[in-house]
Specification:
Largest sheet: 5 strands, parallel
Oligomer: single chain
CATH architecture: 3-Layer(aba) Sandwich
Radius of gyration: 18 Å
Order of helices and strands: HEHEEEHEHEHE
Helix content: 25-40%
Number of domains: 1
Number of strands: 7
Number of helices: 5
CATH superfamily: Rhodanese-like domain
Structural class: alpha/beta
Strand order of the largest sheet: 1-6-5-2-4
CATH topology: Oxidized Rhodanese, domain 1
Amino acid sequence: MFQLRLSQLFAAHRLSHRPLVPLSSSRSFATLRSTSAAMTIKYMTPDELAAIIKSEKIPMRDYCVVDVRDDDWYGGNIKGAHNEPSYGFLARVDELVTKTKDVPLVVFHCALSQVRGPKAARIYAETRDLLQAKGADSQHQVYVLRGGFSDFQAKYRDDPHLVENWEAEVWASDWS
């Protein structure tokens, strides 16, 4: 019986630069993408993102905010954020990369930016990095919003230039 250790599988993948595909044909099981170097996730504070949004920078030209919350998107969002739900993110990442390939700064977040936001940021960054290595993409930076929308809305929910669609009943004291 042949057994392949996971570390060997990842090593083989790094050499081939091909996406790892699960044995089942379902894309709901995450297709793993990896690069030869470990990716370090960079974080941005709510204050840093607020300064970018309030600056003269233009959304979708100078920066893009990607909110990967699923049903928890309702009740408020960062003004101008694009909702790309995490439940189907892997299937749509190429479309998002195409839409944002000329945007130099992309910031991801979810409710707390502990799982969904960082995972989506990693998948997105690796996809763009592969394109850039082939000369098909420009320089870019990918960040995760520290504390997610929860921290952002706690500080800026009353600022209509930064938060839209905010509903108090959704953001009960458990979140604020």
